[in-house]
Amino acid sequence: MVVPCPMAKGLGPVFEKKVADKEAVGEPVAALLDPSGDIPEDSALLALLANVLDTVVDANEHAYQQDADPALVPSLTVFHGLRAPPIGVEAYLVRIAKYAKCSPACFVQAVALIFRLAKRDAAYQLTSLNVHRLVLTGVLLSAKFLDDHYYNNAFYAKVGGVSTGELNRLEVEMLQLLGFRLLVPREELEQLLADAQAGCLAGQVVARWRCGRKRRSMGPDDGTALSDAGSRRNSPAGRAQQHGLAMRVKSSDAAAAAGGASAPTAVIAINPVPLPKEVSFEPESLPSISVGGGDAAAWSGDVLVVAVSEDDLEVKDEVASVKGEALAALDSALGGVLAELLAAGGFEGKQGQRTRPLRVLGAKAANVALVGLGKREQAAAVADWGQSPYQALGSSIAALCKEGKLKTAALALLAPPAQPAAAVQRLASGALQGAYESTRFKTKASKAAKLQSLTLLGLGDADGLDAAIKHGAATAVGAILTRYLVEAPPNVLEASECAELGMGLFLGVAEASHEPAKFIHLVYKPEGEVKKKVAIVGKGLTFDSGGYNLKAGAGSMIELMKFDMGGSAATLGAARILADVQPAGVEVHFTIASCENMVAAKGLRPGDILTAASGKTVEVNNTDAEGRLTLADAMWYVQEKQGVEAVVDIATLTGACIVALGGEVGGLFTPSDELAAALTQASKEAGEKVWRMPLETNYFDGLKSSCADMKNTAGRYGGAITAALFLKEFVKEGVEWAHMDIAGPVWNDKEALPTGYGASTLAEWAAAQGK
């Protein structure tokens, strides 16, 4: 078979002219499909494939304009961009061929894979917004599949004009969508070329999706159309706008778009996923937790989880066997299933270890699993450092049920804990936090079964267990609220009142943002006598670009700067916990100076001098050290206007603290040994890691300014300490103060999720102040 020039008719005059200019009379299909050959940059094959792709794109976009039925608006995918790239499809193919040196077969197979996706799911129909990424990813996969030699993803990303990280994600996405089936039969490739020659492929593909496939709706969009013609509700663009599409129509075609005879030439720009207009700050549902009685072997449900300590087992050659009497008795009652689980190896009862659920025939529990508690003497309800073994136990149960899609679970404890109520509180908190899964910003709800109930067995007749479960649930909901707020994109006193109070530092940071600054003040007041008034002040930078000292380059983490309000999220999470727990004797003020740190002509500049609410003047030598400025005014407010006796501020303040303590430990700075001890104990109760850092007063020399009372940053070294020393300048004499730098533990890099860190520690500390 030969690809002759005359058969290109129907694919457009541009292609026909290109073929004529090259004086090509055809290329054998065998050569085109040979994976060992090279493709010349001026190959007619690239023009042929580009025109096929362009034809399909034009047909699809024309169809969207003519009958944008709300039920047929396509979903966003990771292959969609916000706007069409300026480079044409053929030029893009030529660029890839020039630098990647792929065989001709790679390009043919890439197009075949793209059409295979389009046939499988209408969300992947070609438009000008996704064709380039689909082509690049298809060629990359085809080269790896067909060619003996190929470049790595970083090289392809550079050639294709995307980041390596994005191309990695696109590659995985396409592989999964294709079911990892990359083999395209030679007959299918030959048929594709034959259809391309005949000019009928595009019509076939468009006909398939228009006649037989229902496309998924995207939901309402908060955006507006980008032209007057496109904003009309009854026009194609107007209807598309209602369902997540905005159409940018060329002015010369505006009349046609408004109902003229000829179809408009348009570029469809799909907006980012529209966010829900109403966002709940409470979890949609959490499992119920209760205390049960009776024999564990008689419990009926999806999975019976047995908590096993290292002392209950005997390990030989890395395989454990039953040793403890209580475990042996339960194993016997269950027909030896526990011994069977242990015989598989890999489980020694260590904290965090767990087995897969084993399906059991003849038992009342459908499945049985083991979870490790660690050494019995170390299984205290409150750990000296980090998470309680019982909180970790609850998290493991939730993870086990999530992975196994199990709805009902029971935990069998072989012996009651030394402090039953304290253990149950932390177990409940761990289970509820582990069961939580955020789906607020996902277009598809998870269909996986969720844990609905957890029954605790083997606790005996201990008192206060129901209250402990309630306390644990309150802690979990507060931590989940903290995570809710941190994960949300950056999307109360008013600013005028803050100006009247002289909050020059806070308002100076907020100046460059289009979003108005908000000063948030909540108060918890107990019934009866107030023994102490305290304040929790959270840093509330909803997004931190760095200002004119822009965060740039590798390691700047600008893409994660939505978490720069992690301190304020922990503050609100603590407020949520205390609202449920209702401790006596303490009045708590929760204060947040919330704004963005952006770049604008009217924004804060290096060298500016600001006046704080306290009257101190500050020379700004780094606009990316903005959090301490907002905190300083908020701290003054709770001391001067509310008369609190103790202040704890919490902030994602410095990268220096991450360097010092890593990603799991928060830094604690305070001149008060008593307050340090109280916060350290609170962190133990909460299962969160806190480490006291020095407040070396000699380092304050670096903050001295020649033209103001102080600067907002010092030298390169000891940055976490000098930030704390800056804040200390805004503490009134006689007021206890501590600063918590949580830049590290606020975010889990491995999971790419917020942790909810800080809320539980703050709530435990505040609740203890009224005792």
UniProtKB/TrEMBL annotation:
Source taxon at top rank: Eukaryota
InterPro entries noted in UniProt: Cyclin-like_sf, Cyclin_PHO80-like, Leucine_aapep/pepB, Macro_dom-like, Peptidase_M17_C, Peptidase_M17_N
UniProt KW keywords: Aminopeptidase, Hydrolase, Protease
Coiled coil: none
Gene3D superfamilies linked to this entry: Cyclin-like, Leucine Aminopeptidase, subunit E, domain 1, Zn peptidases
GO biological process: proteolysis
Assembly information from the UniProt record: Homohexamer (dimer of homotrimers).
GO molecular function: manganese ion binding; metalloaminopeptidase activity; protein kinase binding
Record protein name field: Leucyl aminopeptidase
CC terms in the record's Gene Ontology section: cytoplasm
EC top class, as a word: hydrolase
Record EC number: 3.4.11.1
Pfam families on file: Cyclin, Peptidase_M17, Peptidase_M17_N
Domain Cytosol aminopeptidase per the UniProt entry, residue ranges: 622-629
Family named by the database record: Belongs to the cyclin family. Cyclin U/P subfamily.
Span list, region Disordered: 216-245
Keyword presence, Nucleotide-binding: no
